[in-house]
Design goal:
The protein is built from 16 helices and 12 strands. Helix 4 crosses helix 7. The chain is mainly α. The longest helix is centred in the middle third of the chain and has 53 residues. It is elongated. A hairpin with a 5-residue loop joins strand 5 and strand 6.
């Protein structure tokens, strides 16, 4: 039996894709069976495989039936538009070429210009010009060690920036040339695999006894509700999910395979919610200030020497081009590329700030939704976010815009008061309640089913008993304590980008700030 966590998804038959195109991407299991002639279990396997590989999600009809909804063009999830792919490949090719040029130009010209300066100075001093070094000395080994890194550095390793480098052993610190490349193009970005990105989501599913809803996924990721529904569709295909419709019509996803273990009951610790995994602003170079100053000084020296020594020698083409035009052009680009990158970087950091604001609001809104007082005032939201991001100077308009977006996604109730609007999100509590009841019913942690809630063979007495059970359920719903699923929204923290690609981040790497204890809220290290 294939393990859905570690094996590639089964590619659906072309007839299923053709049938879905004919149905404009929206179909029930019965529609696909009718259009293809496949047995229902094979059609269901194919549809779940499609949920993993193509953009799609599940919906519930008014009658409580599950509908599979895909993009009418059946676009694959990892599909990339041609223009975006061309820009990415072109930029990657340019970076490779410029890095090779940098390796030759920066150090070689720096050394050459230093030697020329020493030669000129010694020639003026002793009249013979014999002051240059001869042979390869011990100092050259130190220079190579400084340029290429310590013995513990992995030559295939990536340089994620100085914050990551400081966590490595001293002999495994990145070499100087990596910092030079980062000065120009920025630190190398972590590229986690899908399995690495899914690790904490799987942990969340297991911590919640194999049952999850889209709203609970938002609590963990901060995704928009549309993206969360899409992601739940992919997780269903990837990890053997079983979508179910609760008594209240909520789609609840059960993952029975993730709750089976050869070592007894599966227990997992709740991963951190979205508001405890805020994003740091991206750095222009990722280097320390000292490294940037040193690299800038080297390139500035080359630029100055090319301007003073090479460019004025227009009558000698070798000196003019070799020691003038070529190093001047390179050194100018060396400074120009980071300046241009800073423009796009500011846009990316604005997007990160918006995501951080949304995650903080998710924490506030979700915690209020399961408490006794369930209204969120606009003024409370502004205070909550500005207190958590005190060092970021978040515009109140941005906070209000994200709050209104959340209200629109969840169909919040809105009331106008003297101090502004207040919002109530009953749908959030309802999804948590339905998920909790489904956990109690399925008991996946014990791998056995709970009591039957409906049967066509019910007698009148049995039906009456079920009505009484439904009434008891409403009473139980009012008494449910869901706070254990929601850490305090005042406890926030940041997560490094590279932590996702690490197999096991030690506790010392997880920089979580307790807002009730720390006087420096939201400050990066």
């Amino acid at each position: 039996m294939n393990d859905p966590v570690t094996t590639d998804p089964r590619r659906p038959d072309g007839t299923v894709i053709a049938a879905l195109r004919g149905l404009e991407g929206r179909a029930t299991l019965g529609d696909v069976v009718s259009a293809t002639g496949l047995p229902d279990h094979e059609a269901e396997v194919a549809l779940r495989s499609l949920l993993e590989t193509h953009r799609g999600h599940l919906e519930v009809s008014d009658s409580g039936d599950l509908l599979y909804r895909f993009d009418p063009s059946l676009i694959e999830r990892d599909a990339e538009p041609f223009r975006a792919r061309f820009r990415r490949v072109a930029w990657s090719a340019f970076k490779i070429g410029f890095k090779i040029w940098t390796a030759v130009m920066l150090v070689a010209y720096f050394v050459a210009f230093v030697v020329i300066l020493i030669a000129l100075m010694t020639a003026n001093r002793d009249g013979r010009g014999s002051g240059g070094r001869r042979g390869f000395g011990l100092g050259d080994f130190f220079i190579l060690h400084w340029l290429l890194g310590g013995s513990g550095w992995d030559r295939r390793g990536l340089y994620y920036g100085d914050r990551h480098a400081r966590r490595l052993p001293k002999d495994a610190r990145p070499p100087f040339y990596k910092k030079v490349f980062a000065f120009i193009f920025g630190p190398e970005e972590p590229r986690p695999t899908q399995l690495q990105k899914d690790r904490t989501v799987v942990q969340l599913i297991q911590a919640r006894k194999g049952v999850l809803t889209s709203s609970e996924l938002i609590e963990h990721t901060g995704l928009s509700i549309d993206d969360a529904v899409e992601e739940m569709g992919r997780l269903t295909g990837a990890y053997g999910g079983d979508p179910r419709v609760s008594d209240a019509g909520e789609v609840v996803y059960a993952f029975p395979e993730l709750m089976k273990s050869a070592h007894g009951a599966v227990r997992a610790r709740e991963p951190k919610p979205a508001w405890m995994r805020l994003e740091y602003p991206k750095k222009l170079t990722g280097n320390s200030g000292g490294a940037n100053v040193g690299i800038g000084a080297m390139n500035g020296f080359n630029l100055a020497m090319a301007s003073v020594l090479g460019l004025p020698s227009a009558l000698d083409p070798v000196i003019f081009y070799g020691l003038g035009i070529v190093p001047f052009t390179f050194s100018s680009l060396f400074f120009a590329i980071p300046i241009v990158r800073s423009v796009t970087l500011s846009g990316e950091n604005r997007a990160r700030m918006r995501r951080n604001v949304r995650r903080l609001l998710v924490g506030l809104v979700y915690s209020r939704s399961v408490e006794t007082v369930r209204w969120v005032a606009a003024a409370d939201a502004i205070r909550h976010v500005t207190r958590a991001l005190a060092d970021r100077q978040v515009p109140p308009k941005l906070i209000l815009a994200e709050l209104e977006r959340l209200a629109a996604e969840f169909g919040a109730e809105v009331e106008a008061e003297d101090e502004g609007f207040t919002y109530r999100f009953p749908a959030i509590r309802e999804t948590f309640v339905e998920a909790e009841f489904m956990r109690r019913r399925l008991k996946l942690q014990d791998q056995r089913l709970g009591p039957i809630v409906y049967a066509t063979s019910d007698t009148a007495a049995e039906a009456s008993q079920r009505d009484m059970d439904a009434f008891d359920r409403e009473l139980e719903e009012a008494r449910l304590d869901l706070s254990r699923y929601l850490p305090s929204p005042t406890r926030t923290g940041f997560e490094e980008d590279f932590e996702v690609v690490m197999h096991a981040a030690p506790a010392s790497m997880r920089r979580t700030t307790d807002r009730r204890r720390s006087p420096r809220r939201g400050s990066p290290p």
